[in-house]
Amino acid sequence: MTQPATDPAAKFDTSRASEYARQSRIALAGYDACHDLAACMLAASLGPSSSAKVLVVGAGGTAQEIITMAALEPDWDFVAVDPSEPMLAAATGHLRANDLLHRTQVHLGHVEDLPADASFDAATLIGVLHHLGGDEAKQQILRSIQARLKPGAPLIVAGNHYAYASQPLLLQAWSQRWRQQGATADEVQAKLGKILQGADPPHSEAAVQTLLHDAGFGQATRFFSSLFWGAWLACKIGRRTWVD
């Protein structure tokens, strides 16, 4: 497998994977709503009752993207990619429990490890960009996805944006979110420390738009927001492709 110089997947160990389903729903208020709307946005973009092959990048943990899309569109099939073995194992368990393994190809690794001539009708990149350090790594994954999408195909991008320290009120509200769920002050600090570990989100919505534009996508439509989190849909422009 192709490995980046600093692999952010290393922090998603067995301990983090085992608690991900619960913790992610606390860290992101509206976790399920975001995934529900992402499925609706892709279905609206592709058209009703259409068959589709969807690339799901960073599918590890809950596999919620696939579970939600599969329920809405029974004729869609999926390719799930994640570089963390514990997170992908957790996702595989959820897919098995929902009888979706026959509709999903599961790959341990990175987008670059997929065949260069792979062709997808749509893709999702949810909760990934803010774990990649620097614009170069963010551009690499977006370009790798773009190269494997059909012309005009939609991409859902969702994740944290804003430099965390630049938004002290949102950061404090995030702390209160954990307290709201019963965490002590020490637990709140520990949870925030784990979330912020190695995180490098785009610093604004404009930065997200620029990353997408430079990777060959058109203007993105924002459809969800929750504290630091945002979710957008953008479509691949023309026939432009990139070489990994």
Automatic annotation (TrEMBL):
Keywords: Methyltransferase, Transferase. One of its GO terms (biological process) is methylation. One of its GO terms (molecular function) is methyltransferase activity. Residues 60-154 form the Methyltransferase type domain. InterPro entries: Methyltransf_12, SAM-dependent_MTases_sf. It comes from the Bacteria. CDD domains: AdoMet_MTases. This is Class I SAM-dependent methyltransferase.
